[in-house]
Amino acid sequence: MELEYASDKVHSQCTNIKVAKKLFDGNELLARSLLARINALENADSIKDIIVMPPFHFHKLKNKNGRDLEGYFAIDVKSQTDKWRIILQPLNEEKKPYKPCNIDEIAGMVRIVEIAEVSKHYE
To answer: What per-residue confidence (pLDDT) applies to 75?
Structure first.
């Protein structure tokens, strides 16, 4: 799958172990897990390959605190018990968000995702 990044900062966090460790306050285990998840995304044929893997805990995000999260999803950086998530958005062949984003209908076709952020989304 092709990965796009919302910013250079997010790209660095997801591809550079040193920057990832800094994001996780020196936690190398989380940093390595993040890079492994990014590697899995890159090696997937479509988002469906990620959805069907229970350890990733792929899930739809709900709007919160006035933030419109329609069309955004998350996967765990390490596990559900850990607070860190990779926030992503499926993109079509023109690299535009799907509107509407009915993931059950498009999962097999999504071959591009944008990594919007890596964060403790639920805090």
So the answer is: 97
